[in-house]
Amino acid sequence: MGKVDPYEVSGDIDYEKLIKQFGVSKMTPGILNKLGTKNLLLKRGAFYAHRDLNKILKGKFAIVSGRGPSAKMHIAHLAMFKAVVDLQKKHGCFVFIPFSDDEKILVKGTDYVKTQEMAIENAKDILALGFDPRKTKIMFDLKHMNQDVYNLAINASSKITLSTVKAVMGFKDSKNIGSFFYPAIQIAHILYPTFKRKIPTVMITAIDQDPFVRLARDVAGRMGLKKPGALTIKFLPGLSGGAKMSSSDPSSALYTDDSDAEIERKIKRAFSGGRETLAEHRKYGGNPDIDASFQYLKFFLEEDDKKLAEIEKRYKSGDLMTGELKKYTISKAKKFFVQHRKNRSKIKIEKYLI
Amino acid sequence: MGKVDPYEVSGDIDYEKLIKQFGVSKMTPGILNKLGTKNLLLKRGAFYAHRDLNKILKGKFAIVSGRGPSAKMHIAHLAMFKAVVDLQKKHGCFVFIPFSDDEKILVKGTDYVKTQEMAIENAKDILALGFDPRKTKIMFDLKHMNQDVYNLAINASSKITLSTVKAVMGFKDSKNIGSFFYPAIQIAHILYPTFKRKIPTVMITAIDQDPFVRLARDVAGRMGLKKPGALTIKFLPGLSGGAKMSSSDPSSALYTDDSDAEIERKIKRAFSGGRETLAEHRKYGGNPDIDASFQYLKFFLEEDDKKLAEIEKRYKSGDLMTGELKKYTISKAKKFFVQHRKNRSKIKIEKYLI
Question: Which of A51, A114, A276, B3 has the highest CB neighbour count under 10 A?
């Protein structure tokens, strides 16, 4: 299996193994039912694991889902935050979205000014998805570090040894001291709603960020706070056929600032599950499971379950050709981004600041 | 020689050796002359070393002198801050006084609420010494962490490896991650005035805090900031005859909240340089260099040089008895604290907050 940790995800992903490796619990129909939204990712199996949701869903809870603003956002990032929006609508949750611009500088050595600019662009994309301004707070660490968050970080950092961080993160002594401290800041992000509202937090994230959840769970009790839970999402498929969309390979994903022409070009070049020739495709049918266009429809673009099932059936049978599937996906993607850009232009970040 | 590092000062102190060990420069009459105040500590040799003052005193500079609020303040603490006040008056400097309540929690494991309360009490004592409210800013890290200071800490922490902090501070992997990060916060304190005002900072402190100055000097250039200098004070004598006043042994020092009766009792019991018997004292004279009362007059209480010289001469000759010297010291100390309490009661901390 590939490598999965907070700073590297590569190779093939085996979710059953990840569940065991990270010690999370497998998603169940009962929990999905309690989460109870018609969100695409939730109803189509993108959330495969969790921590403590059996218990936490019995009462009030808050959601934390952060963003490391090192690059533009692509459609899979948006889809995950759309799931958060839908959960907020369903459960009336308080949602906290911290932007770890500081982490990017510490761990990736990104440029200070560019990282802060990127954080603002990312925030607009996220907030455009429909978060309730009365129940949603965002924070850029390098712009408005909140005193409670800072104090939680100091408190957490006083309770975690260097040995523990070395074991969890695998850092060597040649790393900068900020990288070793950063887990305390992320723990503070996770525990902030619990500290303010005395209700547990659910961290919504991919499994690579789970070590931070685990550390937060380790110290929460000693900080007099409820343990956070987690809702864990799969690495969503990219256009090039890999298991995860890559932020560093721009052609592997659709970005929120892609032009219509770029959207069209990228989907046309996307990895396909169709056959080599028209005749073979008609005879044997295509494979939607590895077809980037179909996966895009499934997880991001096609709300209508019947329509999706029909497309899948027709593609498998060879009735629907790759070109037709791509054409449909292009039209859906263009429509999605037109609406997204419109929503995005209306966002006033100030309304959401912590 | 004893041990001197940021978290332990013990044993006998050899200042010549410390100068070599820490790589600071020996104080010179020329620099003292440029500092140019009639402050007791400055004119009576309490500042024995420096970094870069030859260069820095040629232009504008700011002063940083912080306080780790783990205990009540005694008269030696006040005396050092009084030197800062006098330097501010002479040079019109901006002075920044950070209270590292966070460090106390990280390194000493002190109680969160008590540490913050102590910080406020300490701040009142310090500000009562006469700082100019227009040119003085204080900050309690756990109460109003300033965004610029936080960002400077993140920036500094991205440029210092764990190996470096281990070498400088001598910490092991069993220490908490906050302790390893804390030097970045202290560096941020030191560099904050330079960041805001583009002028160098002089850190005024005892040599045990010099490792932070050295780290700040190491990274300042890479952060695009001028290197800080330092003005280094001796460990001031306690009442029990040790080289340093001890904050953990209450009878070894005069505290700002000591009653008149306590002041009298403590000085009466203080270590004396007098002889065993009256007759011997008359015959051989006393030793002012090891006499706590005389040292108190010299560094804290007797402004008048002629008067001090006369007392020294009379004590050495056996003309002045220990009882008389103590009586005089008690009257000076009581007078000092009466005035201090009066000044302290008028302090409004809000006027000085960053």
Answer: A51
